[in-house]
Amino acid sequence: MPKSKQKPVETPSEEFVPELDPEAREAQMINLAVRQAEKQLREGTAPAQIVTHYLKLATVRERKELEILEQQAKLIAAKTEALESAKRIEELYAQAIDAMKLYNGQGIDEDDEDVY
Fold this sequence. Notes:
This protein has 116 residues and is mainly α. The chain has four helices and no strands. It has helices spanning 22-43, 48-57, 60-103, 110-115. The chain is elongated, with a radius of gyration of 30 Å.
């Protein structure tokens, strides 16, 4: 039986243009590192550190930790939204109090405006 030919793993070309934006550059470098790790794993030359890294990613514990991090991010976003909402409500109460003062003929004191 003839051997099946594997596609060679792409290597960075000579025409590699580094990104100027630091975040894009970091993503580019991560991509290169992952490609190199993949190449080493396919060739069987990957050091134990790389093998261990990818084995850890495949564990149930790692998936649970990622799930927990996602839930924590949602919780932080909800708390931020609640704080912003509370601030808007406080501003509305202040406006309502000022409107009631005007309605009652009290007017708005110069000092009261600084409080809100």
